[in-house]
Amino acid sequence: MCMPRLSLYKPERGNDYEFLDRQIEEMFTVGGTDINIHKYLGAENPAEGDATPAQPQYNAVNETNIQDLLFLENRDRKYDADVYNTRAIYNIQDIDFDLSQFGLFLSNDTLFMTVHIRSIVKTLGRKPLSGDVIELPHLKDEYALNELDLALKRFYVIEDVNRAAEGFSPTWYPHLYRLKLKQIYDGREYKDILDLPASEDSDSTLRDILSTYEKEMQINNAVVQQAEEDAPLAGYDVSHLYTVAYNDDGTVELQTADETDIDASNLTQLTSQVDGRPDTSGYTGYLLGTKDAPNGAPYGMGSSFPRSPIDGDYFLRTDFFPNRLFRYDGTKWMKYADNERITLSNDIARKTYKTRFINETASNEIGGEQVDVRQSLSKALRPKADN
Amino acid sequence: MLYFYDGQVRRYITQIMRMLSNFGVDDGTGNGKTVPVMYGDLTRQVANIIRDNSENKLPSAPRMAVYVTALEQDRDRTGDATYVRKTNIRERAYDEDNKEYLNYQGKNYTVERIMPTPFILRVNVDIWTTSTDQKLQLLEQILVLFNPSLEIQTTDNFVDWTSLTVVHLENIQFTNRSIPVGVDSEIDIATLGFSTPIYISPPAAVKRMGAITNIITSMFDEERGTVDLGETIPEINAYDDYPISGKTQNEHGSTAQTDLARHSADVNYKTYGVYIDGNNAQIIARGAVGQTSWRALIENLPGTYRSNLSRIYLTNLDTSSLLTGTIGIHPLDETLLTINWDEDSFPDDSIITSAYAERTSIDAIIDPTTFNPDSTKVAGLRLLTLGPIGDVNNTFGPTAWQNNDGSDFVAEANDIIEWDGTKWTVIFDASESNEVIYITNLKTSKQYRFKNDEWLLSVDGEYPVGTWRIDLDG
After folding, report:
1. ipTM summary value
2. Does the predicted TM-score (pTM) go above 0.95?
């Protein structure tokens, strides 16, 4: 009878492995730190009408689904509403901030964390996956510069998972996973997590207290506001400048008390006015026209000219695009100016020659069907299914 | 050098950031999320404040960062550095109390702008996105606007001739990543390179409107093709308070032109003249006096009319001195301008010498047929008579005008006479004088002018084209 050959390695995980694994698990219990795991469930399934071959609708949400088969990315990630807790160990390291064009980033923010394989698989029900988000409760920042009473949590996302070299026991079997972690950002990918309440009884979401977005938008809006103050509208503002009215012979046109055709009942005639009303602007340049009459004169507006106008009346036709200001010269309505000054900001009011195609919100009834005027060129008038 | 800073490059950067603002991306729920745009070269201190001074704050994505990569002088666009362009601006009147513009004319200005210096401002826009799809969403919205460039404006000020420019999209770097990515995934940044031709301007000169409203005279001799040097040599007028117009006298009276240039230019607004009658002025237009409203003229002049502060200046054709006074349009008749004369501007009185005294004034103007000098007769009394006194053919003259020795005194209308204590003497014989004489009547303090055998108020008369002007700002 001969002794079996001494070998810690066995084809199957034996008692040695079990013994060591229990010791290692205990070591994590004793010396590790809690981590809360937001389990990635899979990419959000698109609605049936939105699905395309490259962005298909799957039978079920599954972590193996790929949302965009062209760019190979999962943008709309679904996370488990439950938060899983386990223990992990990692080396605390000093971090610095990198000042980038987008603000401060943690320079060496890649953490390598080890977790006990059996524990985490038992907890999660599967192996940790790139996309799982880990919260480190021991890194909460209670002293952040905000007006909230809430501490800021630290979130990381798993980038890669592999077996840790130091997690192999003498049995040659692995006991530890090495998780490569990076700090998450406030993006579409983590919407499910950041929409969670910041605390149990809080109205704020995690995004509200963690993201820099609000502050960045405040800064951006302030800059846009400054730009709008500098140049509210395209072209040049001549509304505060004065235009002298002239008669045909070149003399200054006056409106005097001895004129016989002044109609005191006419609302557009001011008793304080001594000058005539100019039939052309005294200023020429690029985009000067507005809806306002020159020299602050009153004017009416509408989609049809008023009856019984008097010489010098101004009227804004709002059915013209751009709106057009007319002046009545005693016999006919003459164009005075077009309201061509529009905002330079990228809002929906901006309707330049090009942006009016982008900011079009109207729809037409065509053949009894409401048809949006604005349609993507690739989708406009595509044939409908006739099967 | 005086310090000046107008934040010109700052305004260009502000507008470029505005140009890139308000673009959105799909946040996964079908709603748009506006992408913030910020200046890329921020300070570490502000960056810490944005992060609430905590390493746990999450940067938001997508984001855009704008920063200047170069500011280069653009030699191709350099122009005449001495070129000055003037613009005349009339403002509407402004009500300081109610903070609103009114419907009549206010202040007038001339703005002088000197040639600005051209530069090319190069700007990068880094776009941080978290997915390729998101990047394409943003790029599609931005790139479609550049065909090949987009206009921006730094101000909407009418006088700012540098405010309008364009932004050219020069280059696009789709990603900063190298493919294959490798072990570590950097954040994905697309970079758009823009250039914009800009100007940096020195301050403008804002002055009271300097539009030419009066051409005093034509210096250009059209026959000879020369310029009248007499008007162009500054030494001639260097020590005068006011420029003196050139003028000539011909069979039609006085005209405002130099001796050389017989081709008088259009002078004054609509070639109007002015007729002065005491304190009233009326416009002479096409030979008609008092048919034209002063309001029509004043509305056309630079400046703001202010009753009794605005001034009229008239060049006295006899002495070339400048008469002036404040003006007000008559409230009931706008063809009348009421003048409150500045008597210091009147011409010097003429000295009239007699055996008794040298004086530049008279004590009164009298009608000898109704005035008895007995009670006021003191030695040195000087009077201007409106009618004749006595007659050489009379054998017995008026008693009141007899000398102490009982002899008659004879004088003609418009003569100035003097009582020397014993007898009357004619010290200015109007029938013999061809000169223009000025004297002041001490009784009324009014100045009179003797010309063409008659006495008139010294300012009265016709002031032809080119001899008068109005300064609304006083």
Report:
1. 0.88
2. no
